[in-house]
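Justification of resources, computational component.

The compute hours requested in this renewal are based largely on the per-chain cost of generating structure records like the one below. Each record pairs the submitted sequence with a full structure-token output. That output is archived, and it is also reused by downstream analysis tasks.
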Amino acid sequence: MKLGLLAALSVGTMAVPSSPLEAAEPFPILSTAIERARSGPVLVKAARGASRVAEAMAVGARLSSLGNPYLEVFADRTAARQAPEATWQSNLWIPLEVSDQRGRRLAENDRLREWRGAELTEAGVDSAAAMVGRYGRAVVAAERTRFLETIVEISRQEAALYGARLSAGDITVRDAKLAGVDLSRNRMALAAARSDLARALADVARLLGPPSELAPPVVDMLSPSGPWELAAREPQRIIDENPRLLALAREAEYFRAQAAREAVESRAPLNFILSAGEGADGSARLGGGLAWTFPLLRRNQGEQARAFAERERALDVAGGLRRELLAALRGLVDERSLVRSALEELREHGEPAAEAALEAARATERAGKGDLLHVVSARRDLVSVRASGLDLEQREWSLLAELVSMSGRIP
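The structure output for this chain reads:
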């Protein structure tokens, strides 16, 4: 980050006041911050938990097609005769799925795990995008704070100087008061910047996890980069890789598989029956048979209808979201191009002109041909220009965060 204010003002080297936000952990680099954000936040943990639940459900899906056998035993006795006769019989039922129910359950679970995995990826990308935006706010806020700390120090020195000159009768009360007003205004701006920095650091720390406090960034401003050329050249490719759209596609596939599983499970398992018993004359009786349910009236129609409706919902949402994302991406690329042009104009012309105007006002004032009002006005213009540049840099970080969320590509 360019910071040529000290040279432009010709005040020599001065110490920058230390920030009150010093903490144990130094501010991380962007790649480290993103990596930690992709594993720590609550949304990521929730998505990871849902993925583990899907994995656990595979245990039931992999069970054998052979169901639990069950045994029924019954007996009767003829009491009307002089010598009552008793008989007993037992039937062992062995259900066997013969309509590929197990295969459909496995297919449904595979789609469920793919869906939950896509949602986990989406949560990680959303957390990374949130970190990019918060990281940019923290870096810009730290740069704004450092710049205003320099401005406040210069204003303090000038206020002290003009106070001494007023005591010596060298200047008017107006000039001394004007220097005091300028110092007070810059101190208020610095206080607001430090407040913004504290909030930005807290927001970054929330995504990083413990410890809960961070030291302000001490490095120069980072230039955010991203797949902007690809977004401008192949926007459809960016949209095709959108994590939310991929998750919706997996969701639709899951409900399609669920409908297929409900269809085959409407056919009850085939039951093999083994019978054993004893007749009234004491002879053993053995037999067997089959039991089969005919799915004529109830075929899980409601469950299948619900699954198909859920699938259509996911596809409809994906179609609408695709159109919205494509339009948003085009606007994003255009806006970023305008921001870059404005930043280049400001850095090449705006800031140098503002610094030159301030130096000229100071030179004129030192030569006795001007007054402090021109210096204060020129410094205010420089602060305004520099603040505009920082606002543009903040916007560029925000645009990058949106692009990360759209593309799933981590900077």
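DSSP finds ten helices and four strands in the chain. The radius of gyration is 38 Å.
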